[in-house]
Design goal:
6-stranded mixed β-sheet, Four Helix Bundle (Hemerythrin (Met), subunit A), Rossmann fold, binds guanosine-5'-diphosphate, about 15% strand, Gyrase A, domain 2, alpha/beta, binds magnesium ion
Length: about 450
């Protein structure tokens, strides 16, 4: 099958709405579309043509629509593209699509428009992958990152790193094959260059660790002894009465979660069973669940009852707190302040709140947000990778680390050049300059039909 055969799909979600769009792309779409349009239809590109759309067989009007023609290669796919913007009734859209198929179009596969854009050199693979991330972005920050990728920041950086390595490889291999003509690279130069590239990859890797927050969100867990007001705070922060609140210790069992949007970031708040040794089987199961979730938490929200002195129970919890980012929340501010925390906690951010009166709640949100912002400030989030790209980045990074050790151990040039070729090849896989068919299928199958 020719790669530019005509494909068509409904690109807008099915359902009632103002406008529904059908996109058609391919080499001979003007011929296929001719019987749908007036014989006088003017194929002026990038112009909105308001026109009836006819049934090619019966010549009945199917709908009145705005038709835009993008002449290839100046189009999304690089081929001739037509977008028919008609009324968004699933019936009308299906009617037009089914007739397009009768007249010679094929229903586009998932992501096929973007795959063609990639095949026709309209975008590199990191940009193509970013298109799916833009579609799936569910927070303002994630959206910004994906847009950065669509503009190709990651691709540019990786290309720059690769082009720093290429001359090294050429000279290394030249010196091995033609020692009389090509001088060997001094080890010190080689070491310096590899270290520089290694630092570049280090920098991109750091962005991944913190930047993952931007994509998947930040998880904060409310943790503390029973009855300090964790569930009340959870309800107040989420603005819903999701968690059951009672004066009886041991009420919360399951881990509850809610997602807030703070400053464009998704923040997942978890409410947990109060930590204590319980002889109640179900409560103990809840406590164990909370402990299991701890490893996936980014920020602990340690809740204490400030109307009481620092207790034995607080001390027990303090002893089990993992070393991780933490905000201390002193709740029940409306009942007075009896709580003095041990000195070792003086460096942690601390908020005084009352879940009952709501005083101090906004400070908790601000504290979480400023913590996230402090981590991501100064990072180029345009370098944020998806899982596939991250795998390549980690492989290239660890191979480079290994090569630097080999250089220090004075390993021969042919071994170094073999690994260097590998690193370049992995980076090419990351940027999409070296790709396999199955890799492409895997990437584009994540798309929806019509993109
Ligand atoms: N006075 C006062 N009572 C509170 C406050 N927060 C929670 N409570 C009460 O403390 C009890 C335990 O609250 P809950 O949210 O279930 O605590 P949890 O066990 O830590 O989840 C309930 O009776 C709440 O009404 C607060 O800020 N001030
Ligand atoms: Mg509770």
């Amino acid at each position: 099958m020719p790669v530019d055969d005509a494909i068509a799909a409904i690109t807008t979600p099915i359902g009632e709405g103002g406008v529904g769009i059908i996109r058609i792309s391919g080499g001979e779409i003007k011929e296929i579309l001719a019987p749908f349009l007036n014989s006088r239809f003017n194929w002026q590109a990038r112009y909105v043509h308001f026109t009836p759309i006819y049934d090619p067989q019966t010549k009945q009007v199917l709908d009145e629509a705005c038709v835009i023609y993008f002449k290839g290669p100046a189009s999304y796919t690089g081929e001739d593209v037509v977008e028919i913007q008609c009324h968004s009734s699933p019936y009308i859209l299906q009617q037009i699509l089914s007739r397009l198929i009768q007249e010679g179009c094929r229903l586009a596969e998932k992501g096929e428009f973007t795959k063609r854009a990639f095949m026709n050199g309209k975008m590199d693979l990191t940009q193509a992958e970013a298109v799916i991330d833009v579609i799936q972005a569910d927070s303002a920050q994630a959206h910004q990152v994906s847009l950065g990728h669509v503009k190709g920041q990651l691709y540019e950086k990786i290309t720059q790193v690769k082009s720093a390595l290429m001359p090294l490889l050429e000279q290394l291999e030249g010196a091995i094959d033609f020692p009389d003509e090509v001088p060997a690279i001094p080890r010190e130069t080689l070491r310096h260059q590899l270290r520089t590239v290694h630092q570049d990859l280090d920098q991109i890797q750091q962005v991944q660790d913190w930047g993952a927050w931007v994509k998947s969100g930040v998880t904060c867990m409310l943790l503390g002894p029973p009855n300090v007001g964790k569930s009340s705070l959870f309800n107040r922060l989420s603005g819903e009465d999701k968690a059951i609140v009672t004066p009886h210790p041991g009420t919360t069992r399951d881990v509850l979660d809610v997602t807030l949007q703070l400053g464009g970031f998704n923040v997942h708040i978890l409410d947990t069973a109060g930590m204590r040794d319980s002889d109640q089987e179900i409560e103990q199961m809840g406590i164990n669940r909370a402990k299991e979730r701890l490893s996936k938490v980014d920020i602990l929200l340690w809740v204490l009852d400030q109307s009481q002195p620092f207790s034995e129970a607080d001390m027990k919890i303090a002893a089990t707190l993992p070393k991780m980012p933490m905000i201390i929340i002193k709740n029940k501010a409306d009942l007075g302040d009896q709580l003095t925390l041990p000195d070792e906690y003086s460096s942690f951010s601390c908020c005084r709140v009352s879940a009952k009166t709501k005083v101090g709640l906004s400070a908790v949100k601000e504290e979480i947000l400023s913590f996230i912002q402090a981590q991501v400030t100064g990072m180029n989030l345009g370098f944020l990778c998806n899982t596939r790209q991250r795998g390549c980045l980690d492989r290239a990074h660890s191979l480079l680390s290994q090569m630097i050790v080999q250089l220090d151990e004075n390993q021969p040039d042919d071994l170094i050049s073999f690994d260097l070729r590998q690193v370049i090849s992995i980076l090419a896989e990351l940027s999409g300059d070296e790709i396999t068919e199955s890799l492409l299928d895997g990437i584009f199958s994540r798309f929806c039909v019509g993109k």
